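How it folds
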Amino acid sequence: MRLGIVGVTGMVGNIFLNILEKKHFSNDLYFSASDKSIGKKIFFKKKEYKIIGINELILKKLNVVLFSAGSKVSKKWAPIFAKNGTFVIDNSSAWRMDKEKKLIVPEINASFLRKKDKIIANPNCSTIQLVMVLYPLHIKYNITRVIVSTYQSVTGTGKKAVNQLNQEQSKGFSKIKVYPHPIYQNVLPHCDSFIENGYSVEEMKLINETKKIMNDQNISITSTSARVPVIGGHSESVNITFKEKPELNDIRNILKNTKGVVVQDKPKENIYPMPIFSYGKDEVFVGRIREDFSFPNSINLWIVSDNLRKGAATNAIQILEFLLDNNFF
């Protein structure tokens, strides 16, 4: 396999390397990043690699390229790689709602992929962990409505946001202004930009991507997304209404038997999902599973996952593994 990574020096790019280091893939690897990084060296599995420009990367005739360099880069370059026969697994929002592109969470819908699908969209981080829990429950009980509130790590914004938090914590202020307000000891009801309907772009991603992945436009979904001074992952408070009354023990058993999901649901023993626990792990954690007494056929639960791993890099590499296992190239 000839594999390339675009955006290798970013936060998700670093996680790509971390995960790939533990895999037994071919070492025929090529790394690309922004112009300021071209020529710099990366050490991977005791071997030195030079970061090259994206123009040079195209000439390598890759089987697969992992993109994590933003929507503008993906919009420009992904079709060029695809035209050359390279599978593009893109971590940006560029192709997610494109009707011609598949939006893939491997445990749910990788079987929809065909060899003609050269550009494959990786969903939004908060969407991935949400659908990992919703989908198996939807199969059994038919979800009619979802209310989700997210509490999202600063890592979802990038390195500069982490630096802002660290400077505010250590110095009491920060010269870095990624957010419009301080983030240390604060919560911002603001993820991404706001649009005319009063929702943020992040909130609309949750709504639209969830429906696309679950292949059901009839589910009513509303969302609120907040940024919190946390490093380890995103948390979600989720209220779910079903067509028929669910049994809580059955809900727990369904989730316990869902690949990639870990149930942590002993609140009296203080066992429940937390970002500090999910950091660096690939699973989606769910707990606080309980009946909503205020509305028929409804439950509440709490979901946590490392947004840089299952929410980004891990999911993309799982798509790569599906392509390999099914002889796409």
